[in-house]
Amino acid sequence: xxxxxxxxxxxxxxxxxxxxxxxxxxxxxxxxxxxxxxxxxxxxxxxxxxxxxxxxxxxxxxxxxxxxxxxxxxxxxxxxxxxxxxxxxxxxxxxxxxxxxxxxxxxxxxxxxxxxxxxxxxxxxxxxxxxxxxxxxxxxxxxxxxxxxxxxxxxxxxxxxxxxxxxxxxxxxxxxxxxxxxxxxxxxxxxxxxxxxxxxxxxxxxxxxxxxxxxxxxxxxxxxxxxxxxxxxxxxxxxxxxxxxxxxxxxxxxxxxxxxxx
Length: 262
Hints:
The protein is 66% helix and 7% strand. The protein has 262 residues and is mainly alpha-helical. The chain has a domain of 94 residues. The strands form two sheets. A two-stranded antiparallel sheet has the order 1-2. Strands 3-4 form a two-stranded antiparallel ribbon. The longest helix has 60 residues. The protein is elongated and about 90 Å long. The termini are close together.
């Protein structure tokens, strides 16, 4: 009889753990899907914009002689576009967007190389895209800029955004939906960090700048305090949940023992 009771206890504990684990996995999967959709839409829009740039390049190059280098760069841009389209369709997690923006960044540089070769100009220096909206293409210079309430920093900008910032105007910023509000993509939350990493990851100082911007956007050191409080509440909640779980198991075992005469 004692062995049977022990087995029942083990089965009860294992069953509780399995159910709890499945619920946690379901919640994690639901959150992953919720995070994926807006990021996937963002990637689709960027790939579409890249395709439109290729169409414009095709019109601009019509009737012009392309040398071997220009043809190679042109083909590279076309290949990157096809790869980016396939990769968007296969996205399963927000982190997949990094592959796409890395591909698009390289493809845009290939377009710039084609244009330079045809114009008889030196190949452009490999610079990061415009920080405010990577769809603007290669940046032309770094400008000092500060987010509202944030610290000034140098960011790469396209010619038009550099002009706006220097004039004290707002740059043309890429925005995303967070809840019911449109915010700059760098304030969109952790799901959007891979999006920026793909564009700017090859330029390590930019990656640190982006991390600092994300940090300042969420309230500086106050944000860490709030995160700490949130983690404390979460750990406390987990502890209470585990206590309730084991308390429930204990009650169940007690009831089970009441059913036996010793």
